[in-house]
């Protein structure tokens, strides 16, 4: 009988990724897992094409491999690879393939939570929604402002991520009038329920009604995807990203969108306004589906810094500074 420690790591990678696939991660996530596993294993093997046995993955070997891996990569990339390998060994321990997880012996960078990137400008969300609803500068062959506003509104008023918008079903927006909620699948298998106020509910109903007119009553069956393209097919990642970018252009607010944020800037705007209006970190955590309270706390700290900057710029304070300096 083969010793588990002699099983090729490449075979175990395939088993790990197959197990992860049952969680329904995106293809991009699975591909990232595979890249992280293969890249570090290549450094362990040192160019040897022979299968690498599990027994070769000692803490000492992995520390050396991760040191070389980190030499020309960002801390975030190293952290992500460490998490992938930690998940891999956690899977092996749970499956009885190995007695322990060597990853706690491998150092990893400590990352500060990324700073929130909300839309800049106090009136930007309102300006964006109004412009898209009016259909300003519509150059598409088949404009669909009701759908575009619904996408923006769910990100701005419910904090949905891109993947959550794509995974949303018609039946996920449910409840009696005045008690409507959107049930969100959530990142990392963390489902959450977000209240839908009457104003947002009206926008979503307006979109569904426009969809009935376009594709018939069957198109809004509860089990169907919520957002579709102009042909009635499920909206895909690239199409949703392009939709949001085009909304920014139509509203003339591209200069107010933080670099690299795009749709996530809408979610960050939702969280930042929650903090500005007095929500605590625990409430923000539940509404946005954060895994860590530290991430939610970041919105409150940013808001506090913005408030201090506003007070610092107050004309009366400037007059006091001039008086003191005089």
TrEMBL record:
PANTHER family: PHAGE INTEGRASE-RELATED, TYROSINE RECOMBINASE XERC. GO terms for molecular function: DNA binding. Residues 7-93 form the Core-binding (CB) domain. GO terms for biological process: DNA integration; DNA recombination. It holds the Pfam family Phage_int_SAM_1. Keywords: DNA integration, DNA recombination, DNA-binding. CDD domains: DNA_BRE_C. Residues 114-312 form the Tyr recombinase domain. PROSITE patterns: CB (PS51900), TYR_RECOMBINASE (PS51898). InterPro entries: CB, DNA_brk_join_enz, Integrase-like_cat_sf, Integrase_catalytic, Integrase_recombinase_N, Integrase_SAM-like_N, Tyrosine_recombinase_XerCD. Residues 100-122 are annotated as: Disordered. This is Integrase. The gene is xerC_2. It comes from Spirilliplanes yamanashiensis.
